[in-house]
């Protein structure tokens, strides 16, 4: 499978690019955000390695339970490691619709991504997605809206 290249000129472009790929349910665009050898840990702790495996993990759920989902990302910070590497954190709210077995609901996660630049293009080298839950009860927690 050949993953198309998406131009990401700076690390801050990653959260909106991820949001756009998710919301269009375009798994090839999603895969193009990652280096070929990237690692990914989803919110359930499932680990995969490689952009193709990341696409294979997401394609079935976007064809079914997440087919009517939307994602909204909000950058927290970018911490440069070098001129060609950075660590990024961003909030992500997943809103699922009627296609999900549990019905419409929202899930908030905190994403940690390690980005690298090669040939002036930034890509995700590693991404980990953590669901916000109450550690005592396991209940999902939605973070407070900014400004409310």
Automatic annotation (TrEMBL):
Ranges of residues in domain DUF4440: 17-124
SUPFAM superfamilies associated with the record: NTF2-like (SSF54427)
Classification via NCBIfam families: SgcJ/EcaC family oxidoreductase
Record's protein name: Uncharacterized protein (TIGR02246 family)
């Amino acid at each position: 499978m050949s993953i198309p290249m998406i131009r990401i000129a700076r690390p801050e472009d990653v959260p909106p690019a991820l949001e756009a790929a998710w919301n269009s349910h375009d798994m090839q665009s999603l895969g193009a955000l990652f280096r070929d050898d990237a690692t990914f840990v989803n919110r359930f702790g499932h680990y995969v390695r490689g952009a193709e495996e990341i696409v294979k993990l997401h394609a079935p759920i976007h064809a079914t339970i997440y087919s009517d989902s939307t994602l909204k990302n909000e950058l927290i910070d970018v911490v440069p490691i070098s001129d060609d590497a950075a660590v990024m954190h961003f909030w992500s709210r997943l809103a699922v619709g009627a296609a999900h077995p549990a019905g419409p609901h929202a899930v908030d996660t905190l994403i940690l991504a390690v980005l690298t630049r090669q040939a002036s293009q930034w890509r995700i080298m590693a991404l980990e997605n953590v669901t916000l839950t109450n550690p005592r009860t396991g209940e999902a927690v939605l973070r407070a809206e900014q400004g409310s």
